[in-house]
Amino acid sequence: MREFDTPKVIWMLIGPVIPVGDSRIDPVRLDNLKELVEATDLMLDGIIQVAAGKDSHMDSVKKAGVCASEYLEGLTGTMLDWTGA
Known about the structure:
By secondary structure, the protein is mainly alpha-helical. Helix content is 71%, strand content 0%.
């Protein structure tokens, strides 16, 4: 197993995001959170683009599209649970 996997590298680059109630620390964590949101938005855009291929006649495109689509469906369920909708 790799010493650093992608999520660990992202967290190392962005830093902590959870506020701790300290006016000296929390502004930095808010900036970190804004970076995380921007990066997540860009990555989700890529996943959405791949998911569009789930009905492709090309097997490799279809496999990637199904994988991305399944992730998005799970994410949708998680978000619905979180919002209580």
